[in-house]
Amino acid sequence: MPALTVTVVAYLLGSLVCGVLYSRWRGADIRDHDLPGGSGTYRQYGRGAAILVTAGDILKGLLAGLLCRWAAPDAGWLVTGAVVAGHCYPVFFGFRGGGGIAPLLGALLALAPLTLLGLLATALTVIPVYRATLQRRVNLNAVPFAALIAVPVGLLLATRFGGWGALLAGGAVMALRSAHLLLRPGVGRA
Description:
The chain has 190 residues and is mostly helical.
């Protein structure tokens, strides 16, 4: 299976945004009030829904990463960028999606698990410190802020443990989406 085919499949998998699917199942569209990721789903529907949506979004990244390892092992960066781009700009939902963190985590779980472990450790250290010190002044959700710190640390880890290209491609798409969201006041800020 050529890398291009795997990349297209990864984008289509990414375009299945679980928060949008869940909210539509509940009779609404979460994007009218919040972002369709785990944090937005938590704010709109509660903890159980957020866990379900986050797990689904991680799973699609994991599936894309596993497909890449099996069919196009040299295209990890391209496939990761595609699954994250699909989540951020989903073809099935008018190119209005989420931030891309969960599918990036899933893809890294398949392609670079040690790098992912370092990323998660960094984020889990940054989040409580940020919430206690800066969140009220910056007025940005803790998860995207932690990602801004964790991704550069992850890049350093990736030079030793692999996944550099995947992390860079996924992080670049997420940064583009974050910049786009910052230009839309009131959406994705909490």
